[in-house]
Amino acid sequence: MVAVLKPGATKEQIENLTAWLEGRGLKVHISKGEFHTIIGLIGDTSKIDTELLGSLEMIESVKRISEPFKSSNRKFHPDDTIIEVGSLKIGGPHFQIIAGPCSVESPQQILAVAQSVLASGASILRGGAFKPRTSPYDFQGLHADGIGLLVDVKKQTGMPIITEIMNANHLPMFENVDIIQVGARNMQNFELLKALGQTSKPILLKRGLANTLQELLMSAEYIMAGGNHNVILCERGIRTFETYTRNTLDLSAVPMLRELSHLPVVVDPSHASGIARMVKPMAMAAAAAGAHGLMIEVHNDPVNALCDGAQSLTPEQFTDVAERVRKIREVIK
Hints:
Order of helices and strands: EHEEHEEEEHEHEEHEHEHEHHEH
Number of helices: 10
Radius of gyration: 21 Å
Distance between the termini: 34 Å
Oligomer: single chain
Strand order of the largest sheet: 7-8-9-10-11-12-13-14
Helix content: 25-40%
Mean pLDDT: 94
């Protein structure tokens, strides 16, 4: 349930109403937008008489939210959420490109890639330290050493870093990580999501291989219910009957998620297609569709990459993609 307050509502009135609602066992979230202040109610709202609430002098309107996701719902928070990552912002009018290798392999490799993508327009460095792989015999990442290399490169380049977490017990290792990524395979690892809800770090939440948008938003709800509202949604392709690409990039998810939710939406065209030559057109299309950012895999030697070389761009290819995306964004502004 959401209650829209009249512009003249005083701080004292809001505090009194909040205390009254919390006294009835409800969680109250106050969202102050450019034109309205909205009070969102989470919990068993059946005990609240909407006519009584709507009759209060300070209330402009009251409506029940039918969707199961509340905190991530745009009805709950009409204005776009803008996530701050150091001096950078994601969401609303702010667009960022996240780029880097699928996995951190060596100090030389991660530094070389970071310097090249930074020069070409990327603002956030990605790199896998823990790698969930289909085969137990494939490279699983450098783990804590990989995070250490990312932190070292962050100090050298000034780029914020993002890397994937697979276990809540690993959270202490992520103290110096700027954005924690939840991969597609862990989108419904609810105990992990609950633990991330207790942090204040931005969380990039990837859509699962066969999950609906509602399920993605419900996973975001798990994080937000714990108090962490710094969630970025990521469309990375879903599994369909098509076999020519690794996954099928659901570009319709971008405008639909922006309609349903106030959270920023990022697109990963690398995992979606699994083919390097498909990344450029998909990245351009994602920007045109209204994505708030892109997540692109770049490797300085894709042929010899230890992970996902087939979908990784060379630094030169990334430069071209970043420039094309910049032009697309100029057109749609």
